[in-house]
Automatic annotation (TrEMBL):
It comes from the Bacteria. This is Succinylglutamic semialdehyde dehydrogenase. The active site is at E231. Residues 11-440 form the Aldehyde dehydrogenase domain. GO terms for molecular function: succinylglutamate-semialdehyde dehydrogenase activity. The lineage of its organism: Bacteria, Pseudomonadati, Chlamydiota, Chlamydiia, Parachlamydiales. The keyword Lyase does not apply. GO terms for biological process: L-arginine catabolic process. Signal peptide: none annotated. It comes from Candidatus Criblamydia sequanensis CRIB-18. Pfam families: Aldedh. Gene3D superfamilies: Aldehyde Dehydrogenase, Chain A, domain 1, Aldehyde Dehydrogenase, Chain A, domain 2. Transmembrane segments: none annotated.
Length: 474
C-alpha cells in the first residue's frame, strides 16, 4: 500500500517513518476496542493501575537515549533538549500519583443515619491529540493521569511526528498493560476530524493552535456532556524593568523567546520595555548575544543551542509575519534569515513594533521577538494585557511591589518573575486564559479533568422518618 505521508531525519534526511492515514473503519474499530476494554480497566484498583504506569516509567528510563535521539531527528531539537523532554515524561508518573493523592481524594461524612460519600469516576474513552513541538512530553501529560484515573486512550500524534508516536506506543506494548487500554492511530487533518467527531468518544484532550481548538469547541458545543480540554497558544508578553545585572536580563529573554527555535506555546513573543537609555543598552547587548547563538542540526558537534523549525513552510511563515510587521511600520532591529544549512534553519529576529499602525495579535511560532516601548510600568501592564491570548507572562524586575502589582493585574495563566517563561514545572498548573485555553489547566491539575466527582447518599437499610407521614398511615 502506498504511504500517505512520511517523515525524514533532520540530521541526514533519511526516512524515519512512512505509513497510511487510519481509515474511518479503523477509527471505528479502535473506538469500539477502547470502549469494550474500559469496562474492566475502570474497575482495576488505582494501586494496580499505577503499577502498569511504573512499568512504562521503567521502559522510558531504559530507552531514554534512543527515544531522545528519535525526537531530535524528527523535530530537529538538539539532543540535550530532547533528553530533558524524556526526563519530564519520566517524572510525570510520580507527579500524577502525587496529584491524585492531593486533589482526587474520596470524601465521607455522616448526616445522622445517612452516610454522605463523594468518589471519582473516569469518563470513558478519551482521545488525545498531540503537537509536534513536544511530541512525547505534552501528550504524555494528558495520557498518564487519564490512564491512572481509569480511562482508556486513543492517541493521535501530530502528522509531523508519527515516528515519535509509534515509539511511544512500542514502549507501552512492552508493558503488561491490557490490550485496548492504550491505542494509537496515525493521520492528518481528516483522521483528526474522523476521530474527534466519533460518537463513541467520551472526551478529547487537545494541545495545539487556537484555530483548531476553536473548531473543536464548535464541534463539542452540541455535546456538553463530553469532556473537552484545550491547551492552545499565546502571544505572550515579557515585561523588563531596569535591573543591575544586564546579563541576567539577556539570559532570561533569550531562554524565554528563542529556546526550541521559538516553537513553544509558552515562549515570549512581545518584549515590553520602558523607553530609556538602559533599554537601549539592553537591546544592544541582546543583539550581540543572539549573534553568538549556535544553530545547526541535532547531530552537530559541539551541540547547537537551536535547531531548525519543523518545516520549510514554518520558516517561511515567520518571514511573512516579519515582513507584514515591517509593512505596518515596524522597524527591524535584527532580521530573521534563512541559513545555508537548510530552508528550515532560521536565525532569531528582533523587530520594534512600537510605531506600527496596528498590531498583529497572533502566535508567531518561531524565533521572532517583537519589542514594544512604553512610558512607565502601568502602561507596560496594559500593553502586556493587550491581546486576546493569556497563556504565559513574565516580569524581570528587582521590585517586589511591581511583582505583586503584576500578579494582580496580568491576565495569563502561567506567570514568571526573574526566571525564563519557558521553564514551567509539571508540579504546578499549566493552562491559559482567554483564547489560550478553556479553563482546563494541565500539568499537576490534569488529574482534575480526567475524572468526575460523584455524590452518593447511603444507608445499609431503607430509612423511615421518626414521624410517619399522614399519607403513609393505614
Amino acid at each position: 500500500m502506498k504511504p500517505d505521508f512520511k517523515t525524514f531525519s533532520k540530521c541526514d534526511n533519511s526516512l524515519l517513518w512512512e505509513g497510511v492515514n487510519t481509515s474511518i473503519d479503523g477509527i471505528d474499530r479502535t473506538v469500539k476496542l477502547a470502549k469494550t476494554t474500559f469496562k474492566e480497566w475502570s474497575k482495576t484498583p488505582l494501586s494496580e493501575r499505577f503499577l502498569y504506569l511504573q512499568q512504562f516509567q521503567d521502559k522510558l528510563i531504559a530507552n531514554k537515549d534512543s527515544f531522545a535521539k528519535l525526537i531530535s531527528e524528527e523535530v530537529g531539537k538538539p539532543f540535550w533538549e530532547s533528553k530533558t523532554e524524556i526526563d519530564a515524561m519520566i517524572r510525570k508518573i510520580d507527579i500524577s500519583a502525587a496529584a491524585f493523592k492531593t486533589r482526587i481524594t474520596p470524601l465521607k461524612k455522616k448526616n445522622g443515619k445517612i452516610a454522605l460519600s463523594t468518589f471519582f469516576k473516569p469518563h470513558g474513552v478519551l482521545a488525545v491529540f498531540g503537537p509536534f513541538n513536544f511530541p512525547g512530553h505534552l501528550p504524555n501529560g494528558h495520557i498518564i493521569p487519564a490512564l491512572l484515573a481509569g480511562n482508556t486512550i486513543i492517541f493521535k500524534p501530530s502528522e509531523k511526528t508519527p515516528a515519535t508516536g509509534e515509539f511511544y506506543k512500542k514502549l507501552w506494548d512492552e508493558t503488561d498493560l491490557p490490550k485496548g487500554v492504550f491505542n494509537l492511530i496515525q493521520g492528518g487533518k481528516e483522521t483528526g476530524q474522523g476521530l474527534s467527531s466519533h460518537n463513541g468518544l467520551d472526551g478529547l484532550l487537545f494541545t495545539g493552535s487556537f484555530n483548531v481548538g476553536k473548531e473543536l469547541s464548535k464541534l463539542y458545543s452540541n455535546t456538553p456532556g463530553k469532556l473537552l480540554a484545550l491547551e492552545m497558544g499565546g502571544n505572550n508578553p515579557l515585561v523588563v524593568r531596569e535591573i543591575q545585572e544586564l546579563n541576567a536580563a539577556v539570559f532570561i529573554i533569550i531562554q524565554s523567546a528563542f529556546i526550541t527555535t521559538g516553537q513553544r506555546c509558552s515562549a515570549a513573543r512581545r518584549l515590553i520595555l520602558q523607553d530609556s537609555e538602559w533599554s537601549e543598552y539592553l537591546i544592544e547587548k541582546l543583539i550581540k548575544a543572539i549573534h553568538k547563538i549556535k544553530i545547526g542540526p541535532p547531530n552537530q558537534i559541539p551541540e547547537p543551542f537551536l535547531g531548525p523549525l519543523i518545516s520549510d513552510e514554518a520558516a517561511q511563515n515567520v518571514l511573512k509575519i516579519e515582513q507584514k510587521l515591517i509593512h505596518l511600520n515596524g522597524k527591524s532591529l535584527l532580521p530573521c534569515e534563512i541559513l545555508k544549512t537548510g530552508k528550515s534553519y532560521i536565525t532569531p529576529g528582533l523587530i520594534d513594533v512600537t510605531s506600527c499602525n496596528e498590531r498583529i495579535d497572533e502566535e508567531c511560532f518561531g524565533p521572532l521577538l517583537q519589542i514594544v516601548r512604553v512610558k512607565n510600568f502601568d502602561e507596560a501592564i496594559d500593553e502586556a494585557n493587550h491581546t486576546n491570548y493569556g497563556l504565559t507572562a513574565g516580569l524581570i524586575s528587582q521590585s517586589n511591589s511591581e511583582w505583586q502589582e503584576f500578579q494582580h493585574r496580568i491576565k495569563a495563566g502561567v506567570l514568571s518573575w526573574n526566571v525564563p517563561m519557558t521553564g514551567a514545572s509539571s508540579e504546578s498548573s499549566f493552562g491559559g486564559l482567554k483564547n489560550s485555553g478553556n479553563l482546563r489547566p494541565s500539568a499537576f491539575f490534569a488529574v482534575d479533568y480526567c475524572s468526575t466527582p460523584i455524590a452518593s447518599s447511603e444507608s445499609y437499610t431503607p430509612i423511615l422518618p421518626s414521624s410517619t407521614p399522614e399519607w403513609l398511615k393505614d
